[in-house]
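MOLECULE: protein
FOLLOWS: sequence and fold
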Amino acid sequence: MAGQMAGQPIFIMAEGSQRTRGRDAQSNNILAAKAVASAVRTTLGPKGMDKMLVDSMGDVVITNDGATILKEMDIEHPAAKMIVEVSKTQDDEVGDGTTTAAVLAGELLAMAEELITKGVHPTLIAAGYRNAAKKSAEILDTITIKVSTDDTEALKKIAATAITGKGAEAYKESLSELAVNAVTAIAEKTDSGITVDVDDIKIEKQTGGSIQDSKLVNGVVIDREKVHPNMPESVENAKVLILSTPIEHKKTETNAEIKITSPDQMQMFLDQEEKMLKEAVDKVIKSGATAVFCQKGIDDLAQHYLSKAGILALRRVKKSDLEKLSRATGANIIQNLDEIMDSDLGNAGLVEETDIGGTMMMFVTKCRTQKAITIILRGGTDQVVAGLERALHDALRVVGVALEDEKIVVGGGSPEIELALRLREYAATLKGREQLAVGKFAEALEIIPQTLAENAGLDPIDKLVELRSQHEQGNKNVGLNVYTGEVIDMWENNVVEPLRIKTQAINAATEAAVMILRIDDVVAASPGGPGGAMGDMPDQADMDF
């Protein structure tokens, strides 16, 4: 890029930089975003297909979870990355509806492209889209159904809807029950309503056995066994000590060399080491602890002393597990053995080693608080268990969100059809070109029921016409049953989702679409340049996912 001044060109950008402007930049960005959306589109709904993702290490992930697919795919294009962010935000906020959010963002951009071609300015489209998103939230509020903590059946339906189509469908009954029981156990009533922190639920995966062998444990399960065979297998009314410091010889900070000239000196040196270790163990014994969980190592000799004192000890326990233990038992995490006080110890009714499918695990149950729940997930292969975990994670999140908001909507493409219908009515009341943008927003929403029909092998146009006709007659809960191809009442068919899935997907997709639409100039640094390595902006031919 050069300017002309007294016959001398002035370069203001580094050599090798790429610049795309105006319509070219817009169509490039829209194309990239649409390509990402189409990559996950076939996974939408219960009849969606799965993707097999193989990373550079050769690890295989088989999933149809939108967020997982987009996270595992190595996406380069900056505009495409924005669609990945939409999916990621949806996963963080709600846990489900990640594919919906990505597909919707892609479709909003496709519709905007049609308007840009007709000469509508991107700023007007952006304003119309924002207006439509705001109106959508108001319309959605009119079609919500109230749900409460006591309504276990409705919560199970929400969990089952999230699990459906995720490879764990055959076992959705048992998984839904696990999810609802776990979430209701850790839900806390506060002044502002109910809060659910899904991090309080630990999922412990164990290959072997079948999915029906999965179970819920009121407590913390740690995938570690006791460090010494002579230690007790179980401790009742345990005094729990949690250490983030090792019970081993302390290595000196400085490099020291000790010269030993006689066997006596060698023996004295070893005796001193042993004495220091014994002192450390004595501090643990003196504290009154009967179960010790250590993040670092425990020396062999220390294990011997601890087992003689009848103390159950575990080493190399993950930091996240220690934090969960701390919350459950009320024990503080100790970093210095000299400063153990009575108040630092926690309580657990039972600490017991149990055999789960040939692996010894430590169960810490009957804890002081019920804020610790562990789900032990079983399955035939690693891939099956990993798929189950993803499905269960979504189920836990949506049940938590439904409890927090106490509002749900039906699924099966029903809310999108209702929104499209009401938004078209709203568009008719607007003046100017914004009306066109709101109309296109309504059309974009219909991509969801249309894709559900396509993925189920049904005729999307016929189904859309049928759905629109039913909603125009006032049947607000009518959606598409992808198994039978019928257009029926989704509430009676038990297909329900939290309201937040829809509001979050619409808001995130709108924000991303608007952001991409407003870009009319893309400046990319050269691969070796100072601005980083964004590389050339790929065109349609070499867009590679």
User: Anything to note?
Assistant: The longest helix spans residues 263-286. The domain at 219-252+272-369 is CATH 3.50.7.10 (GroEL).
